[in-house]
Design goal:
Chain lengths: ~375, ~375
DNA sequence: CTGAAAGCGCTTACAG
DNA sequence: CTGAAAGCGCTTACAG
């Protein structure tokens, strides 16, 4: 493959001049520039970004390390990050850790060796201190700017972060159910390993506490993060089990979309009516949730905004404008989109639990 | 940041030796190796992959250029690619063109400049000759090995490719509906820009032709690739329109998941029963499709296998084992998963179109 | 405006 | 086993 010297030779000039026309760094006479451009064409020359990076000590590459891509929020998140990064003239190096802390660390080390200019990290649910130490060392070495995106962790402290408002989303969902008069709200939670998961549980509890209530412990159940049939089956079994309680729930707050399918299946088998017998709210929205026979109330997230803001924050730091500004944690609002699976209950209360309602309510509450 | 010379100095040896312990390329005495390792620790040294790449002329990086990530098949595809690539010691550079040929070309040029060892390309729906020329030049320059993945194109010829069996998937779906006695099968197609889209239409037509039938032209409608509410609304409007025909369809083959929501919405409004009045088959499967009140028959794809095989093929070429072997086109089979939305019709035929069926059939036909 | 040369941080014969 | 040196392909003062 041709290099810059070949081009210089063919254009009868020096490599410095070729470099100048390549980067518009120095003025070059039109005639010479034309000769150079022609030589580039002729030789099918593609300047080596590798050599350029070695020389400039910048790779124009952003790394993104995240645990999963098979979640509903991952694709729009990645899409937004990629868009921002590309528009700023950077490339995106993607690494998926599958939630394995060991892999997470290896991937971060690799990103460091590849000398990415910035690193976007979505902390896996099993994020540990060893990983945090590594991040701190990386950050301290001063070569790579780091921002938590979508999933942060308490360690390291002093790291920029952009995440969804999980707590208020769960708080709004739970408050909504309480407002509707539900008294026994089951929580189908995700293993509380990460901050996101814990914040959803916290929101559920705060909504109760605010009214001087304490949710019954037996109503809190653990689901699975798995997007596969296992996740569905577990939610189904758990729901069945909830209705063997002496005092079964009159509402269920489900912490992810996959589990909703299992819950609905179980409720169908038990011939329980939504929302007549049980109100339902889901964390995270999707088109199909609103096109079900009984549209499901959902906490809608904006993973695209999370990605966009995280990328912009990182890029902003990289430009050096805010090099040493104090770390910033941005919380992207979530929205409660109220649909029949919960709202129908208000009407039913008036009508003394008439037949399955058909009218569709769709209001939006912003946090 | 410390470099290899700093390490050599601290360990009181030469850079060649440090390099040797870093790469296990040459035997080094245990004592010296320990000194080197200690110096590396001490200096928090991360060898520069950039410098290494310049020297070795290999970046251990694979590029992936694809149009969309917001489709149901993209995430499992990317996941599999990333996994294979990572396990082979490579990194993944991801670029999303959004289907814009201009961007597609810029991204490919950038990948070339970054000197990726291999390139996985998912041809956008608007793939044009200019892009094909560029690919050919890239391939000819001999630095980057290229494989079409998930979406190929007729040009350039002689390129490795791994794609889903769109044609047979559509063929199986249509044949299944014809076998059930459907005579007027509407096709809700996607704009026929890419090979994938055209193959689905082709499969629909071949199934008819095999029986000496020719589908009525007014039953073929164009939907949208959009995953947004627009895509749903268009499918909804189109479905309504289909039932203003003098002779409306008794089955609909829908070419993607998003459109199914619009179709179901329209059928609901028209108070048409699935599968009693209209049988329904969807290209591409999803968990929620089988948990709907009437589970939907679907052509199930294996985007993960497509990604895995494409990555492996590329990696295999890179290892040089099959450097110059003739190009290979792998077609990954699709499966028809038969559910109530079509299978129910067989039973109804027997029962003289009784009330909505409730039994669930789930068989699998392999192509 | 243009050109010769040092330097970015590695690897890899090559000589000892 | 170990060390000095050239080379990978750029950029960037620096001198003309």
């Amino acid at each position: 493959m041709a290099n810059i010297r070949d081009v210089a030779r063919l254009a009868q000039t020096s490599v410095a001049t070729v470099s100048a026309v390549l980067n518009n760094s120095d003025p070059v006479s039109p005639a010479l520039r034309a000769r150079v451009l022609h030589a580039i064409q002729e030789l099918n020359y593609h300047p080596s970004a590798v050599a350029r990076s070695l020389s400039t000590r910048k790779t124009c590459t952003i790394g993104l390390v995240m645990p999963y891509i098979l979640t509903p929020t991952a694709p729009p998140f990645i899409r937004a990050v990629e868009e921002e990064v590309t528009n700023a003239g950077y490339s995106l190096l993607l690494a998926l850790s599958d939630g394995d802390p060991q892999r997470e660390r290896e991937m971060m080390e690799l990103m460091a060796q590849k000398r990415v200019d910035g690193l976007l990290i979505s902390a896996g649910p099993s994020w540990d201190d060893k990983t945090a130490d590594q991040i701190e060392a990386l950050q301290a070495s001063g070569t790579t700017r780091i921002v938590f995106a979508a999933r942060r962790s308490e360690r390291p402290k002093n790291l920029d972060a952009v995440v969804s408002d999980n707590r208020n989303g769960a708080f709004a969902a739970t408050s909504h159910l309480l407002d509707l008069g539900c008294t026994d709200i089951a929580l189908l939670a995700l293993p509380a390993l990460g901050l996101n998961e814990r914040d959803r549980i916290l929101g559920y509890e705060l909504a109760h506490r605010e009214r001087g209530l304490i949710p019954r412990p037996e109503l809190r159940r653990w689901g699975s993060t798995s997007q596969s049939p296992d996740g569905i089956a577990l939610a189904q079994a758990t729901t069945r089990d909830l209705f063997t309680l002496e005092r079964p729930p009159d509402a269920i707050f489900v912490c992810n979309q996959t589990m909703v399918l299992g819950v609905l299946q179980a409720l169908g088998e038990l011939r329980l009516d939504v929302p007549g017998d049980v109100a339902l709210v889901c964390f995270d929205d999707a088109p199909w949730l609103q096109h079900l026979p009984v549209p499901i109330t959902a906490v809608s997230q904006r993973p695209d905004l999370v990605g966009r803001k995280a990328a912009r924050l990182l890029l902003h730091r990289l430009r050096g404008d805010a090099e040493a500004a104090p770390p910033r944690v941005e919380i992207v609002p979530t929205e409660l989109v109220i649909r029949e699976s919960s709202a129908g209950r208000a009407r039913l209360a008036g009508a003394g639990r008439a037949a399955t309602a058909t009218a569709r309510a769709e209001q939006v509450l912003e946090n």
